Amino acid sequence: MTFSEETLMAYADGELDAATRAAVEAAMADDPQLAQRVARHQRLRTRLSGAFDPVLDEPLPERLLNTVRSAPANARADNVVPLQRPRASAPRWSWPQWGAIAASLVAGALLAPLLLRPPADAALSTREGQVLAGGVLSRALSEQLASRQSRDAPVQIGVSFRARDGEYCRTFMLRDKSALAGLACHNHGSWRLQLLTAAASPVTAPGAYRPAAAALPPAVMRAADELISGEPLDANAEAAARGRHWSR
Amino acid sequence: MEENDGHERSGRLGMRADPAELRAQLVALLPRLRRFARTLARDAHDADDLVQLAIERALTRAGQLRPDAPLAGWMYGIMRNAWIDELRARGRRAHLFAPAEAAENVGDASQGTQVEALSVQDALARLPEEQRSAVALVLIEGLSYKEAAHVMQVPIGTLTSRLARAREALQAMLGEI
Questions:
Q1: Which residue among A21, A91, B5, B149 is the one 20 to 30 A from A147 at the CA level?
Q2: In A, which residues are within 8 Å of B161 by CB distance?
Q3: Residue A75's closest chain B neighbor by CA?
Q4: Measured at the alpha carbon of residue A163, what is the angle toward residues A161 and A166, in degrees to the nearest 5?
């Protein structure tokens, strides 16, 4: 009886049914060459395991354990990360890092048109290495209340909250064709971008308006979750914060 | 086709929707996730970055995981997709690591074992990704053909032919003992 190489591999991998396995074993008993071919496949398994199994015995890196313990989880099937209670651990990204991420995004060709618009209109501008909201975005962040915004407004405000250092932060989505979403925090009279990303789904489709928070990309929600202290602002707290011009 | 006992069982608990339960299962899986990551990314730091990314994604997608689905296979799939994305991104940035780089992977082994391990890792790294993943899932992680095919989203026949080609190539590179 002859066996294909794939059958011998399957034997070495424990993938044969009982009858074929018995046939291979009977043939091996009479045919040393066949037995050698099988042994070759088994040795390869052993060599591969020998090369990688030591990883199993390495101490687990603390950062991975921390991620498992405290990265935000979402048990729902819609893939939107809900805002949760503030976490005890320090945020994984410091503020300058988020700034750097936003800056590198802005440097990309994707966002060039936003920066190249006439300055008065530009939704984003840079200053001293930071990305700031400008024009329509800055106005919306300062003035627009999520509880009372028009669904036709060019910027949709999502959640507003206080960060742990006391700054007010708000998530937003641009309803123009850039379809960007992000998170900005108020600091010294400006809205500084913490994160900017492509919106998960187009928000401009007529008649397809959904509540802003439902369509916010998970990355934005996660960034908010990293920064938030306490609960998101409700409608009254949002109006009160606007009344104080978003100062701490 | 034999069921591959031992590894998937721990992932079949029914309480997957509970993030605390998922976190506990992920901690138990961490050594294996790190081993699989090391077959994808040869650099140990890159490999742990990949594990970290996969954990974050898994937790944000916890609601998508069926309670009866094997957790390890789901995680391997997330890691492999993330790694393929990463390679594409690196290609775009023209930052691909030279293949001979980062050969300081497995620690704690005696000198002879160390040399042996590196040559096996070198050989594996030279395989095309689809063959390397087939080898890693079946020969190193011990998944059944069926489970490995599911992780790679290919028919079993495709998986076994990749595995056969990979084995021939590895045996040619490594020589016989």
A1: A91
A2: 6
A3: B63
A4: 105
pLDDT, tens digit, 9 for 90 and up, residues B10-23: 333 333 456 778 88
| Pairing outcome for strands A180-187 and A124-127 | unpaired
Neighbouring residues of A135: CB distance < 8 A, sequence distance ≥ 6:
A117, A120, A121, A122, A123
Q: Six-digit token pair at B60?
A: 């944000």
Q: Is A154 in contact with A175 (CB distance < 8 Å)?
A: yes
Give all domains of chain B, ordered by start, each with its CATH number. 9-174 (1.20.140.160)
ipTM: 0.80
Nearest CA in chain B to A5: B164
Mean pLDDT within A175-204: 74
Residue with structure tokens 């490995």?
B148
The Cβ of residue A243 has, within 10 Å, a number of other Cβ atoms equal to 8
Residue to substitute from A38, A45, A67, A222, interface B, most B β-carbons within 10 A? A67
Other CB atoms within a 10 A radius of the CB of residue A79 amount to: 14
Closest Cβ opposite residue B64 in set A44, A61, A77: A77
Hunting for tokens 């992932």 — which residue is that?
B11
- pLDDT recorded at residue A122: 64
Name which of B79, B102, B73 is nearest B11 in CA terms.
B73
Contact A67, B55 (CB under 8 A): yes
Question: How many angstroms separate the CA atoms of B44 and B98, rounded?
Answer: 15
pLDDT at A72: 83
